[in-house]
Amino acid sequence: MNNTAKYISELLYRYECVILPGFGAFLTKRQPAMIQDTTHAFFPPQKIISFNSQLQNNDGLLANYMATAENISYTDAVAKIQRYVLWLNDKMSAGNRVDLEGIGSFYTSVENTIQFEPSQETNYLAEAFGLNSFISPSIIREKEIKESLSEISTTEVVRETYKEQVEAIEETTPIAFTPEKRRQRPYLKYAAILVFGVVIGSLALQQVNTQTNLENDRVIVNAEKEIENRIQEATFEIASPLPAINLNIIKAEENPEVKDLIAKETTSSSSSKYHIVAGAYRIKANATKKVNKLKSKGFDARLIGVNKYGLHQVVYYSFENRLEALKALRNIKKQEDRRAWLLVQDL
């Protein structure tokens, strides 16, 4: 006797996928509890079974379970499963409908494809064991109906009583009602519109001012970041290193002319606080090369020292007057290098 369908049914309680090798896989999906408002039917949570004919590889789950249950070898269990699959295919090829107890029914469609109808009798969700679907009739509360009827009857009695009293008063003393004309005050309407417009205008103006301040702050932050990035720029030119130069150093004390020249340059440099920066370099030799290149173009270029990032700064010019420095900066940006910038610093 082949109990393959029974073993598949038992495994569906514990696993979401049980493969019948060479035939297909049975898949389960959890469905929560439901209530149908129209029929007042209650359905417990359950596992819905579906079938996928593409999953046919043997994962060993069914064969191992069958071998343990029947106390046979794994090879014998696989052989029994194969015989069961052949029997299923022969039955459906003959046009018969095959029922697997508790699982569902298989049959072949007109297009010669396998069709599966899951069984609705078995709930494979172990947590819902013992829970069945049921239909609850609608509840009609007699007390509420009686109270509503009594309230309606009481209201009708009071209404009829008042009606009779009013009719009796009208017969003895007729009452004439003269409608009073309300004085119109159109200015109040326009005043309210004016106040509303003033409030809306002030709110809009406040919002515009807030947005303007935020935009100004953003522009300032971006400008500061741009300056920091340019300060940190370093140019490394090591493809053609400078040749070694032998210099004969003459002490200033020994040559009065050199001493006067150094003093003059020091005085001129110290008095200039506006510097147009051409670049900053990590290696001093590259900075010196940049100075020579700028001097060959006619600029009064020089080194002004090392900044806080350890870079040697090269400038085109240094000025005492801010307006002259800005004018020169515009020309340099336009004709030489748009990345040049103005450094304000006392050296």
UniProtKB/TrEMBL annotation:
UniProt xrefs under SUPFAM superfamilies: Sporulation related repeat
Pfam families, per database record: HU-CCDC81_bac_1 (PF18174), HU-CCDC81_bac_2 (PF18175), SPOR (PF05036)
Ranges for domain SPOR: 268-345
PROSITE patterns in alphabetical order: SPOR (PS51724)
Transmembrane segments: 187-205
Keyword annotations: Membrane, Transmembrane, Transmembrane helix
Domain of life: Bacteria
Designated name of the protein: SPOR domain-containing protein
